[in-house]
């Protein structure tokens, strides 16, 4: 899909193996990568640089096309991730509900966004909710702690499961609704993603598969 057809740029940020790619796969293609446990990271390919997908969303009488960027979580791709979130109107900052360190990494990306992208609305997203539902002892990130933090930074909290699909479509629909509530947003954003897409294609050639 060409950049000229993207109305809104959405970027996903967070720690490597924090569930970003699985979340995008569930949203864009309504699928989950098999029944293997999340913890067995050998069954998942880490994103290199970034991966891109687009999807149309019906919001009332409007049809928006969301351009969704899944960035690499590895710290060695940190500088590249900054390029991909440039100009994003929404950021889904992901953290693994079973990994406390992933929430600290989420705080890092929130600070980056607040310093560099003032116009970007932040959505905190706890992933792998199915794991904490099946065994509450696996939860390492407290819900009330995240909601207190979200209130402090004027963000929202969504806890999701890519395995079951819980709250994922609701999250992206809320993002689209928030964006569409200001008609000027669509006018300003159309055609702005070409530079990012060109960079993505260049990196695909350099590194191979990016998703």
UniProtKB/TrEMBL annotation:
Enzyme's top EC category: hydrolase
PROSITE patterns per the UniProt record, alphabetical: RAB, RAS
Keyword line: Autophagy, Cytoplasm, Cytoplasmic vesicle, Cytoskeleton, GTP-binding, Hydrolase, Lipoprotein, Magnesium, Membrane, Metal-binding, Nucleotide-binding, Phosphoprotein, Prenylation, Protein transport, Transport
Catalytic activity: GTP + H2O = GDP + phosphate + H(+)
Keyword Plastid included in the entry's annotation: no
Superkingdom, natural source: Eukaryota
Keyword Disulfide bond: no
Localisation: Cytoplasm, Cytoskeleton, Spindle; Cytoplasm, Cytosol; Cytoplasm, Perinuclear region; Cytoplasmic vesicle, Autophagosome membrane
Signal peptide: none
GO MF assignments: G protein activity; GTP binding; metal ion binding
SMART domains: RAB (SM00175), RAN (SM00176), RAS (SM00173), RHO (SM00174)
Names of the cofactor(s): Mg(2+)
Cellular component, GO annotation: autophagosome membrane; cytoplasmic vesicle; cytosol; perinuclear region of cytoplasm; spindle
One GO-annotated biological process of the protein: autophagy
Subunit structure: Interacts with ZFYVE20. Does not interact with the GDP dissociation inhibitors ARHGDIA and ARHGDIB.
Protein role: The small GTPases Rab are key regulators of intracellular membrane trafficking, from the formation of transport vesicles to their fusion with membranes. Rabs cycle between an inactive GDP-bound form and an active GTP-bound form that is able to recruit to membranes different sets of downstream effectors directly responsible for vesicle formation, movement, tethering and fusion. RAB24 is an atypical RAB protein that presents low GTPase activity and thereby exists predominantly in the GTP-bound active state. RAB24 is required for the clearance of late autophagic vacuoles under basal conditions.
Family membership: Belongs to the small GTPase superfamily. Rab family.
NCBIfam families the record matches: small_GTP (TIGR00231)
Protein name per Swiss-Prot or TrEMBL: Ras-related protein Rab-24
């Amino acid at each position: 899909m060409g950049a000229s057809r993207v109305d809104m740029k959405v970027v996903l940020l967070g720690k490597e193996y924090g569930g970003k790619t699985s979340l995008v796969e569930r949203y864009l293609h309504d699928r989950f990568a098999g029944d293997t446990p999340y913890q067995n990271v050998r069954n998942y390919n880490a994103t290199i640089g970034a991966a891109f997908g687009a999807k149309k969303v019906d919001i009332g009488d409007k049809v928006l096309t969301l351009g969704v960027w899944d960035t690499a979580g590895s710290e060695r791709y940190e500088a590249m991730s900054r390029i991909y979130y440039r100009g994003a109107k929404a950021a889904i900052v992901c953290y693994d509900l079973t990994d406390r360190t992933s929430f600290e990494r989420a705080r890092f990306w929130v600070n980056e966004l607040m310093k560099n992208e003032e116009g970007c609305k932040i959505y905190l997203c706890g992933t792998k909710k199915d794991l904490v539902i099946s065994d509450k002892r696996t939860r390492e990130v407290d819900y009330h702690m995240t909601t207190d933090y979200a209130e402090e930074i004027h963000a929202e909290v969504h806890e999701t499961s890519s395995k079951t699909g819980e709250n994922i479509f609701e999250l992206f629909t809320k993002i689209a609704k928030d964006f569409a509530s200001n008609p000027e947003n669509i006018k300003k954003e159309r055609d702005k993603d070409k530079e990012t897409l060109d960079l993505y294609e260049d990196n695909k050639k350099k590194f191979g598969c990016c998703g």
